[in-house]
Amino acid sequence: MFQLLRPLVHVIQPWLVPFCFLSAWAIVGLLGWSVWTATRDTIGRGRQMHRIPCAGCQFFTSDYHLKCTVRPSIALTEEAISCPDYEPRTNAYSAKGQTLS
Predict the structure, then answer these.
(1) Helix (H, G, I), strand (E, B) or coil at 60
(2) How far does CA 101 lie from the centroid of its chain?
(3) pTM confidence score
(4) With the C-alpha atoms ordered 47, 48, 53, 56, is the resulting torsion angle positive or negative?
(5) Which ranges of the chain does DSSP label H, i.e. alpha helix?
(6) Cα dihedral: 53, 56, 62, 64 (round 10)
């Protein structure tokens, strides 16, 4: 049975090494592309999440039971980026009501 395949092996053999070489580099390229897109998407998502202003709002309680006293359903979500009730946290001891830095 294998003797019938012997002529076929001699025809395929010159093409086998370049095919394997290109296939291996294609896999490496796809892996690199996948890592690049995952990193890019993660950075974009992180930038989006850092736009959520809840931690600097005076209505934010830092309690996981009630995160926000005004809009608890959208606290710490992307909907809170454009929250109409956002008020910067002010220092109670300052005379002019400046925000904390």
Answers:
(1) strand
(2) 28
(3) 0.60
(4) negative
(5) 2-49
(6) -10
